[in-house]
Design brief:
Blueprint: H1 18-28, H2 31-36, E1 41-42, E2 53-54, E3 57-58, E4 68-69, H3 75-80, H4 84-104, E5 112-116, H5 136-151, E6 163-167, E7 180-181, H6 185-201, E8 207-210, E9 214-215, E10 218-219, H7 225-228, E11 239-240, H8 246-252, H9 260-270, H10 283-294, H11 300-316, H12 332-344, E12 347-351, E13 363-366, E14 381-382, H13 388-396, E15 401-404, E16 408-413, E17 419-421, H14 440-443, E18 453-455, E19 461-465, E20 471-474, E21 480-483, E22 489-493, E23 505-510, E24 513-518, E25 524-528, E26 531-535, E27 541-548, H15 550-559, E28 563-569, H16 589-601, E29 605-610, E30 624-628, H17 635-644, H18 678-681, E31 699-709, E32 712-721, E33 727-737, E34 748-757, E35 762-770, E36 776-778, E37 783-785, E38 789-796, E39 802-810, E40 818-819, H19 820-823, E41 825-826, E42 832-834, E43 836-840, E44 847-851, E45 857-865, E46 870-879, E47 881-887, E48 892-898, E49 908-916, E50 919-927, E51 930-938
Parallel strand pairs: 3-5, 4-14, 5-6, 6-8, 7-9, 8-11, 13-15, 13-28, 28-29, 29-30, 40-45
Antiparallel strand pairs: 1-2, 9-10, 12-30, 16-19, 16-27, 17-18, 19-20, 21-22, 23-24, 24-27, 25-26, 31-32, 32-35, 33-34, 33-38, 36-37, 38-39, 41-51, 42-45, 43-44, 45-50, 46-49, 46-51, 47-48, 47-50
Length: about 950
């Protein structure tokens, strides 16, 4: 008798639809096995032949953390390209490299946590480098393009499964796990949700990651918006992966729940499907879920819902089939793409005609970033490297380029008269993995090198002050002083880096000298018999002996050149990074000194800012100013080609550059409407506006037409290259409501197009704008609303460079008054406020309003219709305090007070006499630590 092979289980049958296969596999799993799958590092289910699976692989601008890979420009630099097609191609390259790397290393994951779609609302946010733009439409378009590339073009299987970060309203690192973003409904719908929604609706997103912060008093990891918003935007199953450690934060730092079992159950029910907590140790999460289930806080159906979403991702990735996608790695095409992206990301902010540089120009390249190719926390390792200096050597010839870094050169003398001495690292001092792996253990410092000591002569160190008094110290051979786990100071790192940077110090005046504090440990540097180390005991008092000022070297180089290029900016691991917000827009003082020295020595000075965020500078005395984000492996080549005119710059600013810190709102003020934030609402004069960027050629705009057809406005205009070289132009289309009934944007980007035009070439651009783009969120009725009336359409080269304008009349309906007699007022649906904050109405749903701090708060609700009249007002409140109600700015007509402490969610209803009829504005004043949920009118 012939033996027949065992039947193939349905979940292994590629002829069946994924839904049936997912259901079949889910039904075969035991409850214990399903609970085990809820952690980031899900174990194998060997009896079913199901492999272990890991959610999470960083891939923000290339495959990160897994060794060498193609490194593209930072995300904010990709945002500056304004080029969705480019981002799609980069996404394809990244996903192909992820597949190729996984074929050799199964630690490389295919569930990629990128892109970051948090809006660049505030330029002091430490993670500014990770986002695309302050505009939700541009962010969404670029994110959708990148995820399409990451997903791949196979009709069934996904090359990688992208997860968007970080849900929701996340723009501060300062106390990021305990601060709450107060986001009123209009800002929520018109701004923060919009960036996520467009990308999800484009169809290539596998899920989202909630952010560490709270929104309206409720942690994002138990956000009802996951259910009420996110999961309504698509028919696909979406995987929600927690941020690292955030499930434990619900109890440990946020104190939102009393026990981890309650917190884990609440997060799972809210929609979190994969728990990233305690590293690779899944036991704590598994135990919490098990206990929550045993206590009745979870049902098996709750667990099944989360596991089902995980399995959908795994089936899409082809895990259970013979789908073969080996990928490719570091191809010539990927190298060319990295250079193209770096070139497209360069923004020319100012030019008095000095650029492009004429052949034969002698260039002095100076500055702290002139010979640097910096990586950030989410970079892969460099396979190839190009600094601005190297790019200029290559393009102009080394004989025409001079260099001065501009570091201060110092010696540190101890109290005994000896100097700090850096021992020779030896012939084999290249650190393991130095080909580019971003390894925090390596960057924290090695222990196989001798620590620093002292001798009569000492070693001359390069000292750089990166601002706020944060220093790095570097040996003559390029090694940075670093502190290893054993506490000794060694010259052992090729760059500052790591989750806790171990290469930064601070000089603290002490008597006639300075103490040297190591920032990573918080301890002072001491001189011991066996070498320098950090310790809690009293530190050594050092005398700082200045050998050469950085500006002196810069001035010498600048004076002997035709043109001086100052390359300034930031180190992505210092003063503005994940876990650390910036405190100012200004350049660090050290770099300002170098810039002033260069200008004084040579008026033909060009500033190239290489940074993860905007600066406030004084450009007037500069011949030209350029900005680019850290541009990855081809940064230097790209900058040199732009300076030489091989490429006309066409990058455009993805966020407003403000003139000073005084123009900025508080970092925690998330009300872009009330706070008049971003180009949408800012009423001051920016240093450089959103969308700004110059070219080496000129463009003419003409023939703007607009026609309403059905549910769209068809807008056309033409752009002509009127200059002498082929170049890209980024044509931008904006709109403005002429006579709105509520505050609307000064102008808002509707669409854009990046086009390449030869000299004399003309292109007609056509935009199909949906009428929904002209709507706003009507808080009075909880819906989108388009008002009738005139809307200006503006075309041009930036948000302020408007070349053409026309007006269209759109139909619609006026916003009706609030029917407060029938529905009352939900407190959060105010039109204006002062001195209040939105808080959670309950732990699971709804918003309430509370006075912010010790101040009284005020809420305004416009056009409230009391009909034929009311005789009573009631308020639903928790806590202690008073609620005062008035009409149209008049006297207080009703006061309702509660003095019975009830806890934050112990609501009570208070009623008192109140007479009104017709339509009025209602003003409500809140006093004391109470929460107002609802106001009702009756009688």
């Amino acid at each position: 008798m012939t033996a027949h092979p065992p039947p193939v289980p349905p979940f292994r049958d590629p002829r069946l639809p994924f839904a049936k296969r997912v259901d079949d596999l889910l039904a075969r799993l035991t409850l214990t096995e399903k609970i085990g799958l809820l952690h980031q590092f899900a174990p194998a289910v060997e009896r079913l032949g199901v492999a272990a699976f890991r959610t999470g692989q960083e891939a923000l601008h290339g495959v990160a953390w897994m060794g060498p890979a193609t490194v593209f420009p930072q995300a904010v630099g990709l945002g500056a390209t304004w080029n969705p097609d480019l981002l799609r191609r980069i996404g394809e390259a990244v996903s192909r490299e992820a597949r190729a790397m996984r074929a050799k290393d199964d630690r490389v994951g295919l569930n990629v946590w990128s892109p970051t779609v948090n809006l660049l609302r505030h330029p002091l946010w430490g993670r500014n480098e990770e986002g695309y733009s302050e505009d939700p439409g541009l962010t969404s378009a670029l994110a959708a393009a990148y995820t399409r590339g990451l997903r791949g073009d196979h009709p069934v299987y996904w090359r990688t499964a992208p997860v968007l970060k970080h849900w929701l309203a996340h723009n501060n690192e300062t106390h990021r796990d305990t601060t709450s973003s107060s986001v009123r409904p209009r800002v929520l719908h018109e701004y923060d949700l919009r960036a996520f929604r467009g990308a999800v609706e484009a169809g290539a997103v596998a899920g989202v990651m909630p952010a560490y912060n709270l929104v309206n008093g409720r942690p994002n990891h138990v956000s009802p918006y996951l259910r009420e918003q996110l999961r309504t935007w698509t028919d696909q199953e979406l995987l929600v992966c927690s941020d690292a450690g955030a499930p434990s934060n619900l109890v440990d730092s946020e104190h939102y729940f009393d026990t981890h079992e309650e917190a884990t159950a609440a997060a799972l029910r809210a929609g979190v499907d994969s728990f990233t907590d305690h590293g690779t140790d899944s036991s704590k999460i598994v135990e919490r879920v098990r206990k929550a289930y045993e206590r009745g806080l979870l049902t098996e159906a709750d667990i099944d819902a989360a596991v089902r979403r995980q399995l959908w991702v795994r089936f899409r990735l082809g895990e259970f089939d013979d789908h073969d996608d080996p990928g490719v790695f570091d191809t010539p095409e990927h190298r060319a793409l990295a250079q193209e992206a770096a070139e497209q990301a360069v923004v020319l902010l100012r030019n008095d005609g000095i650029l492009p540089l004429i052949p034969g120009t002698r260039v002095a390249v100076v500055g702290l970033l002139a010979d640097e190719c910096k990586l950030d926390w989410y970079s892969g390792g460099l396979l190839h490297r190009s600094t601005p200096l190297e790019g200029l050597y290559e393009r102009f010839g080394a004989e025409r380029v001079t260099f001065a870094e501009g570091v201060d050169r110092v010696r540190l003398r101890t109290s005994t008269g000896a100097f700090l001495y850096v021992p020779d690292g030896g012939a084999d001092d290249e650190a393991p993995g130095a080909e580019g792996a971003l390894d925090p253990a390596l960057l924290a410092g090695r222990t196989d090198l001798p620590p620093l000591g002292t001798d009569p002569v000492g070693t001359e160190l390069a000292l750089v002050d990166w601002g706020e008094g944060v220093l790095t110290l570097r040996a003559p051979d390029g090694r940075y002083l670093s502190v290893a786990e054993d506490g000794y100071v060694r010259a052992s790192a090729d760059q500052p880096g790591g989750w806790v940077v171990q290469e930064t110090f601070r000089l603290e005046p002490h008597g006639a000298g300075h103490l040297l504090r190591h920032i990573g440990t918080g301890h002072h540097v001491c001189v011991a018999a066996d070498g320098l180390r950090v310790a809690e005991e009293d530190g050594e008092v050092f005398e700082l002996v200045l050998v050469e000022r950085g500006e002196d070297a810069v001035a010498r180089a600048a004076a002997g050149a035709d043109v001086v290029l100052v390359v300034a900016g930031n180190d992505p691991h210092i003063n503005g990074r994940e876990t650390e917000d910036r405190t100012t827009l200004r350049l660090p003082t050290h770099q300002e000194r170098l810039l002033h020295a260069a200008r004084a020595a040579n008026p033909r000075t060009i500033l190239a800012l290489v940074s993860a965020y905007p600066y406030a500078i004084e450009p007037g005395a500069l011949s030209a100013v350029l900005w680019t984000a850290h541009g990855g492996q081809a940064a230097g080549t790209a900058l040199a080609r732009v300076l030489a005119g091989d490429v006309s710059p066409a990058g455009r600013l993805p966020q407003t550059w403000y003139a000073s810190d005084a123009d900025l709102p508080d970092l925690l003020d998330y009300d872009v409407i009330g706070g008049r934030q971003t180009y949408l609402y800012f009423e001051g004069t920016p240093l450089y506006p959103f969308g700004h960027g110059l070219s080496y050629t000129s463009f003419a705009y003409d023939d703007l037409t607009a026609q309403v057809t059905g549910e769209t406005v068809r807008v056309t205009f033409s752009v002509t290259n009127t200059g002498r070289m082929t170049a890209d132009e980024v044509a931008q289309l904006y709109a403005r409501a002429v006579d709105p009934s509520v505050p609307r944007p000064r102008r808002e980007l509707l669409d854009h197009r990046r086009v390449t035009l030869a000299p004399g070439e003309r292109a007609e651009l056509v935009f199909e704008v949906p009428l929904s783009a002209f709507a706003f969120w009507d808080v009075a009725h909880g819906r989108w609303h388009r008002e009738p009336g005139p809307y200006d359409l503006m075309a041009g080269g930036s948000s302020e460079d408007v070349r053409l304008r026309t007006t269209v009349l759109l139909d619609g309906a006026p916003v009706p008054p609030r029917a407060v007699r029938e529905r009352g007022l939900d407190a959060a649906d105010f039109d204006e406020q002062s001195g209040t904050a939105l808080v959670d109405r309950t732990r699971t749903a709804g918003d309430a309003v509370s006075p912010a701090g010790d101040r009284a708060g005020e809420l305004l609700y416009r056009a409230c219709d009391f009909g034929s009249g009311v005789t009573e007002v009631s308020v639903t409140v928790a806590g202690e305090g008073t609620v005062e109600v008035s009409l149209d700015g008049g006297p207080v007509l009703a006061t309702l007070a509660t003095d019975a402490p009830s806890g934050p969610y112990g609501y009570t209803e208070l009623t008192t006499d109140f007479t009104a009829d017709g339509v009025h504005d209602v003003r409500i004043r809140l006093r004391g630590p109470l929460r107002l949920a609802h106001v009702g009118f009756s009688g």
